[in-house]
Amino acid sequence: MPKKVDHEARRQEIAEALWRIAGTRGLDGASLRDVAAEAGISLGRLQHYFHSKDQLLLFALRHTNRLADQRIRERIEALTDEPSPRTVLRTCLSGMLPLDEQSRTGQLVAAAYFARAVHDENLRAEAEDGIPKLRAFLTDQLRRAAERGELSPDRATEDEAMLLISLVDGLSAYVLLDVQTGDEALRVLDLHLGRLFA
Prior knowledge:
- This protein is mainly alpha-helical.
- It has one domain: Tetracycline Repressor, domain 2, CATH 1.10.357.
- Helix content is 75%, strand content 0%.
- Helix 1 (7-25) packs across helix 6 (101-117).
């Protein structure tokens, strides 16, 4: 009887091989052949799952985003009692920073994706779909905070949510470049939240 292959698990293994390359030497020069070698499979086998580097990169980005979402959700669910909107915001935003090996690798994959998506409309669709959802979630938390009297109602806007996303994106880039440490990025995030909720 032929062995049953879990195709989704195999795709994830290939994506994780891409992450390992991203974490050690970046993705610019990495070919599908390099990823196949890292995954311990033939190039033909890899191309059975991914026909191009862009397909693989997009899958790897979605997979790392799912894992990050799960990690952040678990952190929020582990908070005692009913967490305040500020606590939820801080947990979510700090979870987006590259503060450990897994989130650092995820940010490196995201950086490679963004560099390619600037010139590729098909790749860009992922950001066009994902960022509005994140902005809506953050806006909802800001509005909850305003309803609880913890934040001025004029700060509970989509613009403020976008500023939070932009802050974390900028801090993430500087942590990846070793311009700032993870602790310094967290301090700046806390400084901004303190001013926002003042």
